Amino acid sequence: MKVLREFADKKGIMLIEDAAHAIGCYYDKRHVGTISDVGIFSFSTPKIITTGQGGMIVTNDKQIYERAMALKDFGREIGVKTNGKIIFPFNYWL
Question: For position 14, what pLDDT does the model report?
Fold first, then answer.
């Protein structure tokens, strides 16, 4: 990861960590998924934490966070009213 981080910084490109199977793991005294610009985790069936479907994105970059929030749940805003009803994210697994 150190080499990848240095390369990405040198070239000015974003580094994304696929930490799907690594919740709770460490690399060089840091949580896996926090070394890059964006860490992604999966919660699908064979993973350490399973919710049947879904995942998590972690970042400490405000612009990336705001973009991810705008794209989640097909771009719907939480709490936006339509026809007088509050729209909540769809979850067919409940």
Answer: 96
What three-state secondary structure class fits 70?
helix
72 noted as active-site residue: no
Angle at 60 between CA 64 and CA 65, to 5 degrees: 30
pLDDT in the model for residue 26? 94
pLDDT of amino acid 72: 74
Q: What is the pLDDT of residue 68?
A: 83
Annotated active-site residue in 10, 11, 29, 47: 47
Euclidean distance between CA atoms 34 and 16, whole angstroms: 10
Domain ranges across the chain: 16-86
User: Around Cβ 12, how many Cβ atoms within 10 Å?
Assistant: 6
CA-wise closest residue to 40 among 66, 23, 63, 17? 17
